[in-house]
Amino acid sequence: MTEPTPVRIRPEIAALPVYRQGRQAGAEAFKLSSNENPFDPLPSVVSALHDSMAVNRYPDAAATRLRERLAARHGVTADEVHIGAGSVSILAQLMLAVAAPGDEIVYAWRSFEAYPGLVIVAGATPVQVPLTADGRHDLPAMAAAVTDRTRAVVVCSPNNPTGPVVTQDEFDAFLDAVPADLLVILDEAYAEFVTAPGAVDGLRELGVVRPNVVALRTFSKAYGLAGLRVGYAVGHSRILDAARAAAIPLSVTAQAEVAALTSLDAEPELRERVRTIAARRDRIANGLREVGWNVPDAQGNFVWLPTGADTMAAADAFDAAGLIVRAFPGDGLRISIGEEESVDTVLRIAASVVRDLP
Ligand code: PMP
Fold first, then answer.
1. CA of 88 to the centre of ligand 1 (A)
2. What is the Cα–Cα distance from 98 to 151, expressed in whole angstroms?
3. Neighbours of 102 (CB within 10 A)
4. Domains identified in the chain and CATH numbers
5. What is this model's ipTM?
6. pTM for the model
7. For a substitution probing ligand 1, which of 110, 218, 251, 253 has the most ligand atoms within 8 Å of its CB?
């Protein structure tokens, strides 16, 4: 049915675009549009999933084993860890927990596409602070954007889609500049790929030192479990209790928990993969700079190509060569670091695009 519904939808939701993924790739294409991990799942993960097929039972709502495991790993208590169906669901819970209509949530823009929608669903007002010209967070401007209606600030490091990190010094100065009762969410979905010295590490900021900071991490990227939906937060237990209260019960599956635990067992092997991806990223970023692209510091598993007004034409050129990349019309292309076999084509098409653009 395409007729209007008589049901009254909240007007801000009716106006909200549905979250869209990049195009799904056909068999002949490389999918470089969703910042996924190109390596096949580990055999140990596949086998653990195979052994955890009691799907007639509900999962442990508190994901106790995984919380305890992560708590031990990060030197915190299990109450200071919260598991979600992807870190994006924890982000939503935190926003719902702190914001009411009329409240503001500040974040940098351009950043992760999901932020504006999550803020609006929480009933709050998005306040977007432009990135600097080199794709970095402008933390002094973000601190200046905080008003007495601001309930949370989201800081994304490395920033999706541009790539640079926030430094520890910048972050500390930011925390000193904002009210101590302001929730600061540090979205570190790509933290494991960072090689730049001096980058912020949210897991060092923990609850006790900075009780208003919550760090978000995910198993989707470095751990290669995007399809299973599992991420976590580390922070003050009272803030995380509020997120737990705002959560949809039982949304983390038993299979997601088992796969995350098994991945933690295989950490050295996964870290090796991450090193491979980071090295490939540096090779691509440098190759792009050599042919004239002004690529911001790339610290995640992706690079940013500032294609501006020519973005859609550039995306078509990649598409025609079998590379599905993420286009942000009028702004740029984000290219995920994928299979080794995709690297030469990425560089070749990027070189031809820079030549062909006016
Ligand atoms: N934060 C950022 C910055 C991201 O780019 C993404 C995924 N694209 C997420 C959070 C969400 O990750 P998850 O799969 O854990 O929900």
1. 6
2. 6
3. 10
4. 11-41+268-356 (3.90.1150.10), 53-265 (3.40.640.10)
5. 0.99
6. 0.95
7. 218
